[in-house]
Design a protein that fits this description.
Length: 301
């Protein structure tokens, strides 16, 4: 994906053409002669006067887990096919030229970007800045999601209303006390059954640290021993609640090195477009765009 993106971005910066219709171009033939990998690369065979190099043999043997003899057969066969393609005039086809350009750009990205930025330290101050902004992720607190059923008690309600609300909430809590693995829908269903027709309020609560919850609600929720279990009746400012611990995230301590490792690929991807822009600027190559020649969406090229 990274290399494909590089191809698109770098080709987008290629030079424009002169005014008027673009002239017909004759594509120069691509050389079909296998290049030598290095001065140490040895010729292991010759096909119609052209060399087959040891580097081809080693690569084929390693990549496809072949014996040296099998790898040599493949390299010779490849050279024969390359010469036949050349005989048929395929080395000057646009597809071959484009494949060569694509390979060149991919190689540039592999050697100048991917090899240069292999670790968080390679991104230097950029990585440092990103980690500082996300330092909070190194100390994640216990964050619990919940839901509740509530027997509402209006402010300044009569004592008998308060007492009845508590009785109803206690009945719900007793009915759910031995239940485990509850999800929100069956929590509500069982609560309504235990309430015997009493009106209940119900709502999920997003994952929230204890400090941001009503104290009575939060203290009760964070005493629940496991996800899927409920509290006893809890008097909150709004009535009597029975609370379900429904999910959330456990506390987690992450070292700086671990956070850098987690964020590295994301930061490197984001930096890639900046790197491409820098390459274009440093090259000094001028280019121009002819917007009037750009086809509308859906137009054939």
């Amino acid at each position: 994906m990274m290399r494909r993106a590089s191809i698109l971005l770098l080709i987008a910066a290629c030079g424009g053409t002169s005014s008027g219709p673009p002239p017909a171009q004759v594509q120069a033939a691509i050389s079909a002669v296998a290049p030598r990998a290095s001065e140490a690369d040895l010729e292991v065979a010759r096909v119609a006067g052209r060399p087959v190099w040891a580097s081809c043999l080693v690569e084929q043997a390693t990549r496809h887990q072949l014996t040296r003899e099998q790898a040599l057969d493949q390299c010779i066969a490849f050279e024969l096919m390359a010469q036949e393609a050349e005989r048929r005039g395929l080395t000057s086809s646009p597809e071959v030229a484009e494949a060569t350009r694509t390979s060149m750009v991919s190689r540039l990205v592999a050697t100048a970007f991917e090899d240069a930025y292999r670790t968080p330290a390679d991104l230097g101050e950029l990585m440092e800045s990103v980690v500082e902004k996300n330092a909070w992720r190194m100390h994640r607190p216990d964050v619990r999601a919940s839901s509740y059923v509530r027997v509402a008690v209006p402010k300044q309600a009569a004592p008998e209303v308060e007492a009845q609300a508590r009785v109803t909430a206690q009945a719900i809590a007793d009915a759910l006390a031995t239940e485990a693995g509850l999800s929100d829908p069956n929590f509500l269903e069982l609560a309504q059954r235990a309430a015997a027709g009493a009106t209940l309020e119900h709502s999920p609560v997003a994952p929230t640290v204890i400090e941001k919850l009503d104290k009575a609600y939060g203290d009760a929720l964070y005493r629940v021993p496991e996800i899927g279990r409920t509290t006893g009746p809890v008097r909150t400012p709004w009535g009597y609640d029975v609370i379900l611990w429904s999910g959330g995230l456990p506390p987690k301590e992450t070292s700086r090195a671990e956070l850098e490792a987690e964020m590295f690929q994301e930061v490197r991807r984001a930096y890639f477009s900046t790197w491409v822009t820098q390459v274009i600027k440093k090259s000094g190559i001028q280019y121009e765009v002819h917007p009037e020649r750009i086809p509308d969406d859906g137009d054939a090229p």
